[in-house]
């Protein structure tokens, strides 16, 4: 089971969860094994943090948080989150900033293996479109990629079951956590299509995002509608 206190589960394994301040403490049932988890916070701002969780059978986990004196990101504050085993108090995700000066500072390093032994994941940008909107691989197993909003070059990932965070950028960002069994030697592309009438970079922009295996032609992650959030000083502020 998963419980929360002041922070919440924004998405898990390809499912976006619409929680609010009234439902933070409602537990979410999860199966034993690996999970791709997107943590959210809406205390003075909307911020997110991706992680990989290895859940044990029969265990219950709690999301916890603490903040500095100001506690408000637009005034330079920071907020730290972690996951602990409810029974033992053991940290199953170490303390990390969900927003603030050093948030999301872990940088992904590609494995030192030949490309034919790795999976390659890349984003896309609409051809001939003058805007900045594009998809990208934002994180692998909770480790964020460098310059993720600027680069759409293929990223090398070790094959196997991976917790991925698919990203979209248009001046604001959208994030989608998925758990995918990547195959060695395969190339994957993060696709998207904006809702009819949506304007990139404006409030309430919505789109569908997915992951295709280009090697087999199979869509390994079905399309999911997500909402773009506007960025303010390292946090994501709801429109």
Mean pLDDT: 80
Task: Identify low-pLDDT runs.
Answer: 232-239
Characterize the overall form. globular
Query: What is the count of β-strands?
Result: 19
Total individual domains: 2
Helix tally equals 0
In whole angstroms, the N-to-C terminal distance is 31 Å
Strand order of the largest sheet: 11-10-13-14-18-19
Structural class of the helix and strand makeup? Answer: mainly beta
Q: How are helices and strands ordered from N to C? A: EEEEEEEEEEEEEEEEEEE
Kindly state the percentage of residues in helix.
Answer: under 10%
Taking the sheet with the most strands, its summary is: 6 strands, antiparallel
Strand content: over 45%
Over all CA atoms, what is the radius of gyration?
17 Å
